[in-house]
Amino acid sequence: MASIVPTANHTPARALAFLPPPLPPWLLAAPGSTLALVDPAAGRGDSVLAQVDLLRGSVLHHLAISRHTDVTPSGADALIVAAGGKFVAALALTVDPPALDLVFCTSLRDFVTDVAVAGDGALVIALASSRILVADLAATLASAAAALCPPSPVVTLASGAVLPATAPLVLLAQYTVADWCILYATSIFAPSRDAIVVAVGSAFGDVNVWRLPPLPAEPGTPIVLDADHVESVVVGQGNRGCGAIANVLWSPCGRLLAVASDDRLGRIWVPSHAETRPATWSCLARLAGHSARVCDVAFVVPSPGELPTHAITVGEDVLAAMWRLNASTPASLDGELAECTALWSSHVGKNIWRAAVSPRLGVVATAGGDGGIKLWPLDQPRILRESTTHSPRVGSDGTNTIRALAALPDASYVAATRDGRILALQRPDCVWSELLALPATAARPARDFAALAIHHTASDALVAAGNRVGDVHLVQISAGNEPLAAVVEASEASAIIGVHWIEWNSAWSEGPGLAIAHANGVLVIWSVSYQPLALRPLARIAFLHRRKVTSMAHAVSRAGDVVTLACGDCRGRVTAVQLDVNASALGFDVTGAASPAPSPASTPASP
């Protein structure tokens, strides 16, 4: 990991872009109103090759790069378009020697949400007021050069450059959409001026795709987009279910759309029926693992024209994550949970604002709120927090929250979730697999698991989980975390608070014992048998005070022959039960019935 600080005052960079081939693999970074050209391969002190200060009072948010011969200034290698606030500026990029020279700047009435240069040299500008401007960039640059002659009114920028106060765009078309709120995020895909597609997101969770019609015969004529040119992308639990849309981004091929939102998720969308218009959209993958808002998404594309193989997400939790994408995965409304292959964290403070990928260098660049730019090698991934990255949360309402977590000897994990699922974290792929899913029924509407325990041997493991309606679920899994058998028993009509395994004399049963603590102050002891897998109740112990149990713990004596089970209740009382696992009897009544005996044996309460 390398670190770059392009400005002395540590201003956060809000825009990043690597130069495309055949230009050198340099990085354009925009900290504040400064545009810096950075060489990632150079040392930290020599990394900034050139910089220019623009747009005083504004922050650069958007960058576009074009090598089209009609718009590249004479003697330059590329044209850079930078936008921030209500300004758009164009700069000539020279490689030898490295230089950035301002050639054009214009002020607009609305805030700019994205800029792009089409493949044929047209300039496309998205405005927050739901307007898209298409301008003839070559004619605009020529007009700006001619206007530099006095007596045109001028304005002095922070860089000291003198530019026309009103250098108008030479407009080809203006597109507007009726009944649309202020845009919060925009991404433009423009292979040519007649094939422009714009993805827009609002502060209320709406995501739409605008397919602009061909340019009008009369240049600059306003066009209102109708329903045939607007496609809705449903995010989260319906539109407006995921909070504000922080960012949207087209893949370089224009076939995938990434959405970053306030619900801590990134999503990858594809059109289900691309041959029809308007197209319908389905989710290819959900990028779930951040603990705060996802601020940006970037794609990893091995070669130009190919589909992305990975996606990069960055967020307010100061984490950068890499996710494997499988374009052959069937898309659906919710999307498959993507596999996280790397997780990086080195920024300090709050927020990683932007990410950019250079396949040529094999690095990911991230710009954080600390003002630094970090470079992460794609071939040296680091997993720092697997359980968070692979959290099996589904949707934006938290219905799949992890309620209980237990570890296996091979460093795998088993989790019980709020929506009634038991999952295992598989190694070495580091993805969750489903061991058990409980359907909701009229008799058992609540599937919420509350407790989980694992008993493991050399060949298999037993996973016991209890839910809020008093059911005990037992799943036998192989050494490779594959489910072998499952059984369920109704223990008590009360929520299960604690689940603990008991090792005892084999005379009791062929398998271990299981202690279940219920919220109604009842402790039930079960024995487990194999072939077939079954649970048999041995004893039911009702505590004297019968207060609501809130926790359970157990301890084993040093000799291993006495097990102590302790339950704490809502009044601060702890009740303990001791079991001699080598005795011929448990020391209290054993029911021997098919269900726990209705008349419990009571144990004295410990102070």
Automatic annotation (TrEMBL):
GO terms for cellular component: cytoplasm. Pfam families: WD40. Its main location: cytoplasm. Signal peptide: none annotated. InterPro entries: Quinoprotein_ADH-like_sf, tRNA_Anticodon_Mtase-Reg, WD40/YVTN_repeat-like_dom_sf, WD40_repeat_dom_sf, WD40_rpt. Keywords: Cytoplasm, Repeat, tRNA processing, WD repeat. Belongs to the WD repeat WDR6 family. It comes from Thecamonas trahens ATCC 50062. It is found in: Cytoplasm. GO terms for biological process: tRNA methylation. This is Uncharacterized protein. It comes from the Eukaryota. Transmembrane segments: none annotated.
